[in-house]
Every structure is written in C-alpha cells, then in structure tokens.
Amino acid sequence: xxxxxxxxxxxxxxxxxxxxxxxxxxxxxxxxxxxxxxxxxxxxxxxxxxxxxxxxxxxxxxxxxxxxxxxxxxxxxxxxxxxxxxxxxxxxxxxxxxxxxxxxxxxxxxxxxxxxxxxxxxxxxxxxxxxxxxxxxxxxxxxxxxxxxxxxxxxxxxxxxxxxxxxxxxxxxxxxxxxxxxxxxxxxxxxxxxxxxxxxxxxxxxxxxxx
Length: 211
Fold this sequence. Notes:
87% helix; flat; ChloroindolylP_hydrolase; transmembrane helix; 5-bromo-4-chloroindolyl phosphate hydrolysis protein; membrane; transmembrane
C-alpha cells in the first residue's frame, strides 16, 4: 500500500519535474543541470522498479484468487475459460444496455416498469457466485441479452437523428414493445433463480429440523 502511494506520488512529481526541465535548463550552469538530470533519472529508475514490483504482486494475487475460485466451484480449465469468456461478454452487453438507457425517456420508462437491466445485473452476480447455473440461463446469455441490447441501441440511435415520420414512430414503438417483453422475461428469469434459492434453503432447513 505504501509502495503504491509512493509510486503514485513520484509519478505526479516526475510529470512536474519534466515539465519544468525545459524552462530551467538555460538558467542552470552546465554542471548543475547534469546533476539535476542524474537525480531525476535515479528517481525515475526507482519508480520503475516499484511499479514493476507492484504489478507482479497484483498479478500473483489475481492468479491465486482465480485458482481458489476454480477449486471452490470444481471447474475444469475449459469450464473456467468458458465462464470467463461468457461472463466477459455478458458484462460488456450489460454496460452497453445501461449506456443506451441513459437519456432515453422511452427506455427509462420500460426499465422503471419491468426492471430488466437491474435483473440482468443480479443474474450476472448470481452466475459469478454459482457458475454451475450457467447452463440454466443459456437463453438469457445468448438470446435475450444480445437482442435487448441491440434493440435498445437502435432506439437510441433513431431518436438521436431527431427524425420523425409515421413509419419511423411505428418502428420505434414496435422495438420498444419488444424491449419491454424481453425485459419482463429477464426479470422472470431472476425471479425463478430467487425462487429456486428459496426452495433450496427451505429444504436444507427441513433436513436439519428432521435431524
């Protein structure tokens, strides 16, 4: 932590020093200027070593956490890679969906009514905690999420053109209705997950009570 703070402070200082170097070089004697450059070079070297050490440490911690996660959930290497790829794509889609919703009254209204985006985020967290459920949510991951993102971005794109005709309005209305249906379906998916978790907890409680 201290090394990271020191490294950050040095980087800010070096930027200022390098900026001022050009202005003071003509005001310093040749010998003084060389000493100044030598000191600056030494500090840069120290910062580079600290940065490399910190990066290595963070990378080591990351790999260790991945190893623990894989062991905890009993994932093979191929299963882990598939999970990382799938959740990476899902995260990117959710961020795009969120960006499309911003500034759109129509999409914000759908979200307020159906809560699809919020449910998608919760499903993502659920998959992170319980990766074995991924096969149960193939429709969400590979169909619903990509389609609702594409439709949402299309609605936003059309509205940004500020063009409005009967045909355009009819098309936008149809897309918004599609978004609403998919959004409701995603919320249904999340509700099903919660229901399943509730039943599992109730069953565990019953088993413990019977003992």
